[in-house]
Amino acid sequence: MTASTLLQEIEKYIPIVGDINIKSPLAYQATRGAVEVVNTVQMAVAEAYINGLEVPDSVLESFFDTCMPIFFQYFPSLLAPYEWVLKETDHLAEGSQQLMKIQYDLPQAMLNTMLGDGKLIYPKYSMGLWEKGALNLEQSQMHMIDDVIEKLDIKDGDNILDFGCGWACVPNYILSKFPNVKFTGLNLSHAQCEYIRHKMQDPESYLSSHRFTLYEGDLNNANFETKFHKILSIGVFEHVGNLTRAFKKLASFLKDDGKVLIHIITVRIPNNMSSVYTHKYIFPHGRYWNYDAVPSHQEDLKTIKKWYLNGSNYSKTITNWLQNFDDNQATIKTLNYGMDYAKFRRIWRFYLIWFIRNFASCDGEYNGNGQFLMVHA
């Protein structure tokens, strides 16, 4: 028996430490009890802040900087607040309409201001790539999409599906690079689709070139007349509860020699991760899959290459979002959020500050982004 195997065997019987998925029944129940305590403390801190407790940003940052390295390195099981976070759920996606309402159907003016809304780079709610020398948020998003183009080996003439296309920033940018590429965007958010339809009527947008098709609906019900050379999905699988079924569906859309690139927030800890705070206020039923989760679901698609993108990239991206959010309060505070704006602002700032520190924690080596290049199994 090797030292690592021996350590794993010992950890089965010790609550909290290491991988919760391998615990003995008694250690598992003790760990779940500890998780409930962490959940309670987390929500007590968050709710106090949301309801008006004056806490300087520096104090919040110090709180996260102290807690997260300990959780990531020693007690990752405490980062799985619910049992459903640890494994696939029965449904492909849970609470998707609730997610749209809370996160993606917010006032467009607020999202444009925070995320950026340029002539080529539309709002993009995912990581920008900074490690190649980007000087600003827009350039970081261009570098990120260029990186995807290279890894997915996109060629002029490809017919591409973007699963969960957001505001169609990625298709618009890629269409600008390749005059013969065709794109289909699949999107569940009606508000985002309305934004895209407006761009499809704008002669300055590449979405108006008749090389872009929009499909409003979810993956379960989607069907297409032709198969695609390439499929990409950026920042969607955090909201997908069943990887096996999702990959089966995507494989059915893919040509025999086609390729799929999945880009997700991921964690390099033994188990998947979520939080009671983000589940309630930000990403209902969202989870951050363990870095090995995608390659372990090989029934219909298999991973042929994978990359880990250091969390510093996302930390810097969110830092820019927070700066944009704070710098434009005069406009943002006038919009309708369906609640008192002071409360919304605190909900949002708590989330952004937390994630800035999360992705920066441990030099970005535990919480970052994973990219997975897949083909037919």
Automatic annotation (TrEMBL):
InterPro entries: CFA/CMAS, SAM-dependent_MTases_sf. It comes from the Bacteria. CDD domains: AdoMet_MTases. This is Cyclopropane-fatty-acyl-phospholipid synthase. It comes from Nostoc commune NIES-4072. The lineage of its organism: Bacteria, Bacillati, Cyanobacteriota, Cyanophyceae, Nostocales.
